[in-house]
Design brief:
The chain is mostly helical. 79% of the residues lie in helices and 0% in strands. The chain is built from 20 helices and no strands. The radius of gyration is 21 Å and the shape is globular. The C terminus is likely disordered.
Length: 422
Amino acid sequence: MNRWVILVMLVIATLINFADKSSTSVASVYIIKDFNLSYVQYGLLGSIFFWFFAVSGVIGGAWSDKIGTKKMLGILLIAWTVLQFGTFFITSFAFLLLYRVLLGVFEGPFGPVGISHISRVFPPESRGMAISISNAGAMVGAMVLTPVLVHVNQTYGWRISFVALGVVSLIWVLVWVFVKDKSKTTVESTEMRLAVEKLKWSEFRPILFSPTLIFTLLNLFGCFWLVVWVSVWLPVYLVKAINLSQTKMGLAILTIGLINMVVSICASIWSDKLFKKSNNLRSSRVIYAASLQIISALLLFFVTLVQIPGMVIAILGLAVGLATTTLSIGPVIMMSLLPERRGLMASLGTSFMNMSGIVGPLVCGYLIEMAGNNTLRGFNYTIICTSAILLVSSILFAIFAKPDRPLAQNIKGIDFTEPKEI
């Protein structure tokens, strides 16, 4: 029962994480107007969040292996609280950029630390499902809360909605202190124990340059490009290109979020069932996730051919749900390559994929500007670009990622004679 309490807390924390991250995009119309921003400048605002996100993710993930994931999660949520309260005093674009940089620094470690914490609590056969449920909190935070944030923005102003999220973070920290963590006496006591020693470069290099790791990272990059597009550009797209009102935009994002959540969780549960039946990572994780991502890419391209709001909303919800299944499966593959360094491996995955957050918003901003006054065409350019990246990365992932292939001959002291999720 305790592991489910922990999972619920992590879902709420993930909800807060992505609500913080996407609150700027929800208030995008107001922020663009208040600071008189171009689409390229707004793209910079979305991009700058990720400038140090990746580095802080690796550092925070590795540090959590030393101080403990529970303590690290508490530190991160306290930092979010302080930063969200600080937005009340933002009066210039420069300070808004600084806020986004600092928020990125302290939100960067959350993904790998949260995944690492789940891996210490849940057994391998249900880990994909647990990570998927936790990830669902991301889209719930970014989408299901959107109507609430829209209402607060319209009634009290966008700064108040940011401060309100800080209050929620503070409440989470106060509850988290009293949540008992028995993870070290549950799953880890029944799994293979590996001594955590200083990792040598000669031992880590074969893993780092293995095709499985490289193309898993590339696929996570492609998948997260879509997530970034959703978090940065979706509200603007629905208002400026699809011509929805602010209220209808909030309801549309709510619908997309719910469709995504159901599709992603169901897809991940099915992947867990396939792994339990076959004990084969390639068939149950790699080929499965790549197939869903290819379908997602095709659906995204189809969005550019229709302008009916209901169809656009339904297709986007399904496409995002299928693609984000990779966000649950990818870290499982990463941690299986070096199980005694879960935090490090999870942080590599989440940090590399977040590099798309640096490039994506800027590229999309320029693509929209290229279309001139034809806003719909500009946003369609960004959707086609996203579709192409998803398609290419998923095909390469399906061809080259083979996590069941042993690496024991290249790594001293680690026995990978059989495929194993840790």
